[in-house]
Every structure is written in C-alpha cells, then in structure tokens.
Amino acid sequence: MTETLAHWAEVFIGVFNQGGQVLLSLMGGILPTLVVLLTAVNALIRLIGPEKIEGLGRAAAQPGIQWYPVRYMVLPFLAVFFLTNPMAYTMGRFLPERFKPAFYDSAVSFVHPILGIFPHANPGELFVYAGIAAGITTLGFGLGDLAVRYLLVGLVVIFIRGIVTETITRIMLARKENA
Amino acid sequence: MDGINKLLVTIGRSVGGVVGTLYQAGRDSVDTTIRNVIPFMAFISFIIGLILATGVGTVIAEGISGTANNIVGLLIVSVVCAIPILSPLLGPGAVIAQIVGTLVGTEIGRGNIPPQLALPALFAINPQVGCDFIPVGLALGEAEPETVEVGVPAVLFSRLITGPLSVVIAYFASFGLYTSN
Hints:
Largest sheet of chain B: none
Oligomer: heterodimer
Helix content of chain A: over 70%
Shape of chain A: elongated
Number of helices of chain A: 6
Shape of chain B: extended
Low-confidence stretches of chain B: none
Distance between the termini of chain A: 74 Å
Largest sheet of chain A: none
Order of helices and strands of chain A: HHHHHH
Strand content of chain B: under 5%
Number of strands of chain B: 0
Strand content of chain A: under 5%
Low-confidence stretches of chain A: none
Radius of gyration of chain B: 23 Å
Number of domains of chain B: 2
Number of domains of chain A: 2
Order of helices and strands of chain B: HHHHHHHH
Largest interface: A-B, 81 and 85 residues
Number of helices of chain B: 8
C-alpha cells in the first residue's frame, strides 16, 4: 500500500522535475539570445521608422501582373518584419477592397515562417517553429538550414496563397453582384 | 562660441535619442518576453515533462509519430487542419500549432520522425494560421463589411487548396536537409 503510494508520489514529482529541466534549458538556451535580438531589432525598427513602408503599400495597390510579387511577397514580408503581428495587417488599408482578403491571408501566413530568423515578429507564437526546431537541436544538427528553408518556402507559399485567395475573392464578389 | 554650443547640443540630443531608443527597445523586448514568451515556455515545459516522465504521453506520442513520420500522414494532418469549420477553432493564439509542433519536435529528437520531415511538418501543422482572426485582421486593414463577408469564406476555402499544397512544396524543398551523415 505505502509502496504504491510512494511510487505514485515519485511519478508525480518526476513529471515536474522533468518539466523543470526542460524549462531551465529553454531559459538558458534560447531566451537570452531572444531578448538581445528583440532589443536590437526593435531599436532598428524605431530608428528607421515603420511608416517608411507605406509608400510600398500604395505601389502594391496597382493592377497588373508585375505587382503580384510585390503585393503578396515583398509587402507581407516587410509588413510582418517592421510592424509585427498583428499590426502588419494594417498595411491592407492601402489596397483596394478586392485585394484585402488575399493580402491578409498572405501576411498572416508569414508570421510563423519568419520566426526562424526574425523571432521579434511574433515572439508569443515562437513554439510553432521552436518546438520542432528543438528536436533538430536534440539530434545535434544546426538550425540555420531549417530556418532559411522555412523562410524561403514560406515566401513561396504566401505568394501562392495570395493569388489563390485573390482569385476566389474575385469569383465570390462577381457571384454576389449577379445575385 | 555660439556655433560650438549648437554643435554640442545637437550631438547631445542625437546621442540621447539613440540611447533612449535602445533603452526603450530593451524595455519592450523584456516586456514581451515576460508577458508572452516565458508563460508559454512554462506551459510547454510542463507538457514535455508529462510526455517524458509518464506513460500517458507515449500514447499521444505514438499516435503523432505514427502519423507525422511520412509525407502522406502530414498531408492528412494538413487537410484536417484546413477544413473550413475546424480551422477557425484550431487557430486561436496558435496554441494548437505550438503544442503539436512541440510534440513533433520531441519525436524528432527521439528519432521516431526523420529530421528532414521537420520542414513539411512545419507547414502541415499550420494551415489554420490566422483563420480565427480574419474579421479582425481585415478590420485592421480598414476593410468594408461587404469585403469581410466575402473575405472570410474566401480565405477559409483557399486554405483547403493552399494548406496541403504548402506541405507538398515544403516536402520537395526538404531534399538534402539533415541527410548528410
């Protein structure tokens, strides 16, 4: 009887000892780097002034195929980098109504792929990336390759997402007008 | 004398400005860290502790490593996460994506999921990103109510296509990742 109780007590406290070790390794591992990096990037953004990208927002509003990469790759990237989640979506105000859902889709889909290299953009949701990256670290590999590929594939995905959502929005708007 | 005074004032002001900016940036980053990052670390540490220390976690972990250790399983995960009714429910705070990400990471660390699948997995667990936030996000972009009415379903349906597609793209982009040894 007592033995069973003692065993359960050990299992119980074991969970928290194990969790405590994990917490310590997280706080000692990524946290100091994160604080310093956040400070540097926040300072850089303040010195540059996030309002500088507004001109680009106006340019991206133009019709024409050459503006697609600007609207769904360059603008979301810069908006998420400088304004961070969730203020990045305010850049949509420079676009005509028919592009707004697609721009939101594109920008919101980039708040995680950017985390591998620029965690300041969305530190509250860091573990979407950091959770998986921790496994790679456990195996003894470097994270650079994964972070860069995540960012690049993310750019391709938000570009496609922007185009697909813009097309669906156009079809739905047309249907609504006919009805 | 006046010129020197002006120069000194200008230098003093700009140095003060830069130092003030850096200091404010530091305060902001410590603020975010304490309010957003550390609480999540505590939460994630508890879950990892539960997985590592008890048998309860192995059941979940086996399910996850069984599903996420091949590209077909990852595609199924991405389709489920992209279902228009489910995606807004799975979205808030990216909590689900962060927990599943951590579980997948733990299994990668244990060797149950090949490390090159880390890249497609990052997209498979996340087709629902921002689906809970579409009306607010559009409102931040000063969208008309009519745009929101069309925009919400447009984004949700788009994810059904682009969610699985992103996993496929990531899978092809993961060739040569962590395979050299």
